[in-house]
Amino acid sequence: MQKLLIFIKKKLKKLYSRNSAKYSDLASKISKSCGIVEKLELQSILRAFPDDSIRRRVI
User: Fold this and answer.
1) Cα(43)–Cα(22) distance, rounded to whole angstroms?
2) What range does the domain containing 17 cover?
3) Are 8 and 58 in contact (CB under 8 A)?
4) Which residues of the chain have pLDDT under 70?
5) Do the beta carbons of residue 45 and residue 30 sit within 8 Å?
6) Sign of the dihedral defined by the CA atoms of residues 28, 34, 38, 43, in that order
7) In this structure, is the dihedral angle defined by the CA atoms of residues 2, 33, 53 and 20, taken in order, positive or negative?
8) Which of the four, 15, 45, 49, 57, has the lowest number of CB atoms within 10 Å?
9) Number of domains in the chain
């Protein structure tokens, strides 16, 4: 799970390189994710992303 979160953070950084406030908000939410409940919350956050490759690795 930890490696997956690092991967997602890197993808988010690329996606939101021009909007650092949005990135830092999402990155902080992802950093807090570590259990099953958090994973479900993470999935709901990732549903808003246009990049399907990120969603597939989590779901």
Assistant:
1) 17
2) 2-58
3) yes
4) 1-2, 16-21, 23-24, 27, 29-59
5) yes
6) positive
7) negative
8) 57
9) 1
